[in-house]
């Protein structure tokens, strides 16, 4: 494979993977560099380098967007979007999304500081399912809201899109289960993975 081949340049690090996932999951997204830096948490110099590389191989293309300024005046700036005609988009999607986004052990570590975690269930984007009610369900007591927000935002920056999630206390969750709450049943009765379960709801290889 030649050094100029686009595949050689792909997957050069976490920043590149973040951008690839972001634009493949959001094909209509158009954002400028400051918004991309904020959303992906990629440092400015690295972001500029990765955007230039992805544009040079045809994955990204330029687009103009309007930014609202003072006194309702808008300014047109250069943004970037997915080049939907790029011939490797389908193959790249398979490479990026056919593997687990995160291992169960990794998710447990990400949420271990949010309180007394009793249950974590993943679905939706984690299983490449589009019809799930949520991407992640967490049952936690003594919740530390700021820690939860930080953990979720970090995951979102790495996955490339906002997560649909639900958080319950153990008492609330067990009550909903006992009442056959439709929202909870829709999660439990459809494809999902139990990452950790200290409630005794389902067996899990990650339970500690």
What can you see in these coordinates?
This is Transcriptional regulator. The chain has 208 residues and is of the alpha+beta class. The protein folds into two domains: 6-97, Orthogonal Bundle (Arc Repressor Mutant, subunit A); 104-197, no CATH class. Helices cover 41% and strands 19% of the residues. It has helices spanning 6-9, 14-25, 33-40, 44-56, 89-97, 104-111, 145-159, 170-178, 182-188, and strands at 60-68, 74-82, 116-122, 136-141, 165-168, 193-197. The protein has a four-stranded mixed β-sheet with strand order 5-4-3-6. Strands 1-2 form a two-stranded antiparallel ribbon. Helix 2 crosses helix 5. The longest helix is centred in the last third of the chain and has 15 residues, at 145-159. The termini are far apart.
């Amino acid at each position: 494979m030649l050094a100029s081949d686009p595949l050689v340049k792909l997957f050069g690090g976490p920043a590149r993977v973040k951008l690839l996932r972001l634009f493949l999951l959001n094909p209509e997204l158009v954002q400028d560099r400051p918004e991309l830096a904020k959303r992906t948490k990629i440092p400015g110099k690295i972001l500029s380098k990765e955007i230039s590389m992805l544009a040079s191989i045809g994955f990204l293309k330029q687009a103009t967007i309007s930014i609202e300024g003072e006194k309702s005046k808008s300014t047109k700036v250069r943004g970037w979007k997915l080049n939907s005609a790029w011939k490797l988009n389908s193959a790249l999607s398979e490479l990026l999304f056919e593997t687990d986004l995160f291992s169960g052990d990794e998710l447990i570590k990400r949420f271990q500081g949010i309180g007394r975690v009793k249950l974590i269930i993943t679905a939706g984007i984690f299983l490449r399912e589009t019809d799930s009610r949520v991407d992640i369900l967490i049952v936690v007591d003594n919740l530390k809201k700021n820690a939860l927000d930080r953990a979720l935002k970090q995951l979102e920056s790495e996955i490339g899109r906002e997560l649909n999630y639900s958080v319950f206390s153990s008492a609330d969750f067990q009550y909903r289960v006992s009442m056959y709450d439709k929202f909870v049943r829709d999660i439990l009765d459809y494809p999902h993975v139990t990452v950790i379960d200290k409630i005794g709801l389902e067996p899990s290889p990650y339970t500690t």
